[in-house]
Design a protein that fits this description.
The protein is of the alpha/beta class. Helix content is about 55%, strand content about 10%. It contains 19 helices and 8 strands. It has a 4-stranded parallel β-sheet, sandwiched between helices. Strands 6-5-7-8 form a 4-stranded parallel β-sheet, with helices on both faces. Helix 3 crosses helix 12 (about 230-240), helix 10 (about 170-190) crosses helix 16 (about 325-335) and helix 11 runs parallel beside helix 13 (about 245-265). It is globular. The structure holds Double cubane cluster. The site of Double cubane cluster (BJ8) has 21 residues, from helix 7, helix 9 and helix 18.
């Protein structure tokens, strides 16, 4: 990474503490990613993004802000990026996947909540995340209790807008979400001074749809046996999607897919077990489960998570000539995401069964971040259905620390032997 000290100082970061993080990441990335054999050439771009994760992209955001642009941070795939783009703002995903931020997070949050929430709070409070420091506003949502209450704390540190996500999928809930999107449109207009027009919204929808299509293409390629790309690399692409410039991300992902299409022509069986991961999201740099599984001669071929299929499945229709119609289209697409915060959430069970078939998986790993109750409770339902379908299932409940790595490895090893 280049020398960005001055920029980080201007962003009011804790430079000393941040240096510790910057020292650890390249080693972790090198050990997990660069040791993989025969990686696609096009992954070099994504390697570069990680190498420059707190540098080049932040520099771009700063340049953009100098010209009057606004940067908005998000934490959930329900927040409609289309609206952010329609006001000519930049959206960045702020979910945090490193143990490094937990200690600071626990200064303001109880220990017994989900690591994702503790990590993002710690990243802000400890002044060690340049993305947070670049944001003019963050957008929260009422999904789980941990997030819902964390916004009140975050509000003491920076402007926060919270979207109230309904927790059921009745007709009136679709209407409620439509209203929430309209309120969000107003808030974004206020923040940026830019009016949302039918044209700008259609443009935002188009960019998001093309991004979804690029990711879908990548995932479709993983349906081949063997997959032409490791689960680790595919996960990295998904993680980068949350903070990269969308147009550049689309181009780079399409280039990767072109290369993978060529690879598919020469694929030879590798005998690896094909695994689906389902559950809670894996924010950068959380590569823990993937590195364990793929270190054991198995391949992860699909993630039914928000850093996987939930992020890109289904497009927003551009049919309509008014903002109201386009907002309705957005509400429909977003309310189709099957997060465990909904009750009931039958759609997720159907998705898992569908993907198990489409990706031809040998087994499923249920990945549950510690203290995420909605996903932990939903496990039983999924277990029952997978048992009926004779699909092997393993539940892993874990956080970001390395303490349980050995234990998880032993369990995954036994699972792979069994399937
Ligand atoms: S749509 S999964 S991104 S809420 S923060 S719910 S892990 S306890 S992230 Fe999520 Fe939106 Fe749902 Fe997806 Fe559990 Fe942790 Fe809450 Fe979490």
């Amino acid at each position: 990474m280049g020398d960005y000290k001055k920029m980080w100082q201007n962003l009011n970061m804790d430079i000393e503490k941040h240096d510790i993080l910057c020292e650890a990441l390249p080693e972790q990335f090198g050990d997990i990613y660069l040791t993989q054999e025969n990686r696609p050439e096009a992954m070099n771009y994504f390697n570069y993004v990680v190498a420059e994760i707190h540098g080049a992209r932040i520099m771009e955001l700063e340049e953009y802000k100098k010209e009057g642009g606004k940067v908005v941070g998000t934490f959930c795939v329900f927040v409609p990026d289309e609206v952010i783009l329609a006001t000519n703002a930049v959206g960045v995903g702020l979910c945090s996947g490193s143990q490094f931020w937990i200690e600071d997070g626990e200064k303001v949050l109880p220990r017994n909540i989900c690591p994702l929430v503790k990590a993002f709070a710690g990243a802000k409070i400890g002044l060690t995340c340049p993305y947070f420091q670049s944001c003019d506003m963050i957008v929260g949502e009422t999904t789980c209790d941990a997030k819902k209450k964390a916004w009140e704390i975050m509000d003491e540190y920076m402007p926060v807008h919270v979207m109230e996500l309904p927790q059921m999928k009745r007709e009136k809930n679709y209407k409620q979400w439509e209203d929430e999107i309209k309120i969000f449109v107003n808030r974004m207009e206020e923040l940026t001074g830019n009016k949302v027009t039918v044209e700008s919204l259609k443009k935002g929808i188009d960019i998001c749809n093309r991004k979804r299509r690029a990711l879908k293409r990548l995932y479709d390629l993983r349906k081949n046996t063997p997959s032409p790309i490791s689960g680790l690399d595919a996960l990295l692409v998904s993680q980068v999607a949350f903070s990269d410039d969308p147009e550049r991300f689309i181009t780079k992902t399409e280039e990767l897919c072109d290369e993978l299409e060529e690879r598919v022509k020469e694929l030879k069986p590798n005998g690896k077990k094909r695994i689906m991961v389902t559950g809670t999201p894996m924010a950068l740099p959380n590569w823990k489960l993937h590195s364990i599984v793929e270190g054991l001669n198995a391949e992860i071929v699909v993630e039914e998570t928000c850093t996987g299929t939930r992020y890109f499945e289904n497009e927003v229709s551009t049919d309509g000539d008014t903002i109201d119609e386009l907002v309705r289209n957005m509400a429909e697409r977003y309310m189709d995401i099957n997060c465990a915060c909904f009750t009931p959430n039958e759609g997720r069970v159907e998705d898992i069964i569908k993907y198990a078939d489409e990706y031809n998986v040998d087994g499923v790993i249920y990945y549950n971040l510690s203290f995420c109750h909605t996903y932990a409770i939903e496990y039983e339902k999924i277990e029952k259905v997978l048992k009926e379908k004779d699909i092997p299932l393993l539940k892993i409940e874990t956080d970001y620390s390395e303490e349980d790595t050995g234990q998880i490895k032993t369990r995954v090893e036994a699972f792979l032997e069994m399937i």
